[in-house]
Amino acid sequence: MRRITNLTLTTLSIALIAWGAAQSGILRYNSYMMDPVPRELDERIVELFMERYPDIRVEHSQVEHETFKQAIRTFLVASPPPDVLTWFAGERMRFFARLGLAADIDDVWQNADWEAVYPAGAQAMSQTDGTYYFVPAHYYWWAVYYRTDIFEELGLEVPETWDSFLDNCRALDAAGYIPVTIGTRFRWPAGGWFDYLNMRVNGPEFHIRLLDGLESYESEEVRNTFAHWQQALDAGCFIDNPSAYNWQEAAEFMVQREAAMYLMGQFIMDVVPEDQQANFDFFRFPIIDPNLPVGEDAPTDGYFIAANAANMENAQLFLEFLGSREVAELWVTEAGRLVPRADVDPALYTDTQRKGLDEVLRRADVIAQFYDRDTPEELAGRGMDAFVEFMANPGVLDRLLADLQREAERVFAERE
Amino acid sequence: MRRLVLILVWAGALLWLFPIAGAFVTSLRTQQDISAHGFWSVPREISFGNYATAWERGRVSRYLTNSFIITIPSIIGMLVLSSMSAYALIRFRFRLNRALYFTFVAGMLLPFQILMLPVFQLSNRLGLYDTHLALILFHTAFQLGFCTFVLRNFMRTIPMSLFESAVIDGAGEWTIYRRIGLPLILPAFAALATLEFTWVFNDYLWAIVLLSSDRLKPVTAGLSTLMGQFVNDWPLIVSGSLLAALPTLLVFFALQRYFIEGLTMGATKG
C-alpha cells in the first residue's frame, strides 16, 4: 500500500514539475482579428514567432470582434489575464491605461528603438500621460468608394467640393440609382458620416475638442454640421431605410450595381467579388470649407500587454516582434493595410495603397481614429444612436442634440 | 373541417421550416454568389465545402468536443445531486424541509444575469477562471434548483408504502434510494436530461464570462469566431450553426418519448 502511495506521489510531483516548466514557456495572446484575411495573417504571425522562439508556446485565442470588445473587461481583471492583447489606439487604449490595466512598456520602446522609426503621430497615440502602453501596428483609410462604370455612364466627375457632390447625388437619383448606400443597423457607418461632415464643416480641431468634451453638441457649429447633412438628405443622396441593413448588406447594393457611392473604410474591397473590383475606385471626402485644415479618419489597431501578465518577459518579446519591420511588412503585403513604421520598403505598397496614402492621408493635416474610438465608449453609443435617428427623422434634431449634450456632460463629469 | 385543419397544420409547418430550409440552402452556396445576387436568388453553384471548412478551419470539431466535455459532467452532476436532494425532501420529515424546498424553487426564479459579476469573481478567486471545471460547477449548481423541483414533485407520485415496505425488509436509505427511488424516476431523468442538455449545450453567456482561451470554448462561443469584424462569410457561419444544432436535435429525438411523458407527469402532481 505504502509503495503505491509513494509511486503516486512521485508521479504527481514529476507531473507538477513538468507542468511548471511548461508554464514558463507559455504566452497567452488574445486577438480580435476576425476578417478572413487579417485572421489568417494573425495566425501566421504567431507561427513565425514560435519558429523564432521554439521554447515559447503561444496559446492564441481568437475572439469574435464585438464579443472581444465586451469581454476584454473580464480578460484584464482575471488571474491570469491574457499576456498580450489586440486593441485600438487613442482614447480606447488610454481608458485601460488610466485604470492601471495595461503594462508600462517604455522599456520595450527603448530597447527596440522604436522612436527612431515610428513617426511622432504614432508615438503620441501610443502614450498615456507620457508613458508608452501601446504599439500601433497597422491602419487603413476611409474614403468615398464609388462605381466607376456608373459615373462614366452618367458622365459624372469625381466631386472635389460639397456642391458637386450634391449635384452628383441629384443626377444619380434622377437616373434611378441609389446615390449613396449606407447600412446603419450597427450604427458605426453613420459615425463615419458625422466625423467627415463635422471635420469638413468645422475643422478637425473643433471635432477633436467636441469628442473630448470641450465643445457642446448644442453649439452653432454642430448645428451647421447637421445642416449640411440635411442638404445631403434633401438632395436624395441616401438609400431608403439605412437602418434595415448592416454595412455589408448595404455594400451589396453597390456590388449589384444599384448604388453608386459608399463612405467606407478600405476593408470594403474585401467584400467586393474579384471580377467586380475593376469597377471600384475611391476619392477623398469632398472639401466643404476650403479655409479649414483637412482631417481624415484612419483607425489604427495595435497591441498592448496586460498589467498583471503572468509571462511578462515572453510578452515583451512578442510585443517587440509584433512591432518589428518584418511583421509590419506582412501587414502591407498580405492584408493590404498601411503601417505606421516609416522604414517599410515603399516598393511593397500597391497602387491602391499608394493612392490611399497620397490622395487621402498625406494630404491630411490631422488624422483622427474614428468617432467611437475618439470619444468615450458609452457616449459614442449614444452619439451614433442619435445620428441614425437623425437620418430617419431629421425633424427631432433639437431633442437629439439636447439629449446628447446632457449625456456628454454626465460622462465627462464622471471622468474627472 | 378535417381538411381545413390539415391545411392549417401544413401551412404552419412550412412556415416554421422555411427559415431552416433557407439556412440549409445558404450553407451550400458561396459568399461571392450571395453578395452578387442576393440571399433569395437561385444558387449558381452548390457544394458541401462550407461544412468541411467550418469543421476543420472553423474548428467546430474541437468546439463541439468542448461542449460535450462541459455538458455531460454537468448533467450527470445535477441529476445525481438533485435526485438525492429530492429523495431527502420527500423521504424525511425535518423542520426546515419546506424552507429548503422553497429555497430551491427561489433559486430557479433568480435571473442569472445578476450572478455574472459574483460568479466571475468567485471563479477567479478560486483559480477556476478559464477552465472547464468553472463552467461545469456553475451549470451544476445553477440548475440544481430546477432539477430538484421537478424530481421532488415527480417522486411524490411514488407511494410512500413502497419505501416503507423496503424499510421493513431491512433496506438502508442508500439501498432504498438506489434500488427503489432511482428506477422509478427514470422517465423524469430522461426528460430532465433532454431539457438540461439543450440549456447547457446552448449556453453562450457563461462560456464567454468564464472562459477566455480559444481551445476551451464550447461550440456556442466558438461559432462566434466565424463572424468577421467587418466581413461575414454567411454560408460558413450558417454551416457551422447547423452542425452545432445537430447534437441537441439528436438528443431530443432519441429521448423525446420520455421527454413528454416525464415532464407532464411531474407537472400535474404538485
Task: Please write out the topology.
The complex is a heterodimer of chains A (416) and B (270).
Chain A: H1 2-24, E1 26-31, H2 36-52, E2 57-62, H3 65-77, E3 84-88, H4 91-98, H5 106-111, H6 120-126, E4 127-128, E5 131-132, E6 135-139, E7 142-147, H7 148-153, H8 162-174, E8 178-180, H9 188-202, H10 204-211, H11 220-234, H12 247-255, E9 259-265, E10 280-283, E11 295-297, E12 300-305, H13 312-322, H14 325-335, H15 351-361, E13 366-368, H16 371-374, H17 377-392, H18 397-415
Parallel strand pairs in A: 1-2, 1-3, 8-9, 11-13
Antiparallel strand pairs in A: 3-12, 4-5, 6-12, 7-9, 7-10
Helix pairs in contact in A: 2-14, 9-10, 9-11, 9-17, 17-18
Chain B: H1 2-27, H2 31-37, H3 49-56, H4 60-91, H5 97-109, H6 116-125, H7 132-155, H8 160-168, H9 173-184, H10 186-201, H11 205-210, H12 219-223, H13 234-268
Helix pairs in contact in B: 1-13, 3-13, 4-7, 4-10, 5-7, 7-10, 7-13, 8-9, 10-13
Account of the 3D structure:
The complex is a heterodimer of chains A (416) and B (270). Chain A is an alpha/beta fold. Chain A is built from 18 helices and 13 strands. In chain A, the strands form four sheets. In chain A, strands 2-1-3-12-6 form a five-stranded mixed beta sheet, sandwiched between helices. In chain A, strand 1, helix 2 and strand 2 form a beta-alpha-beta unit. Chain B is mainly α and 270 residues long. Chain B folds into two domains: 47 residues, no CATH class; 209 residues, MetI-like (MetI-like fold). Chain B has 13 helices and no strands.
Q: Report the β-strand fraction of chain A as a percent range.
A: 5-15%
Radius of gyration of chain A: 24 Å
Rounded mean pLDDT of chain B is 87
Main β-sheet description of chain A: 5 strands, mixed
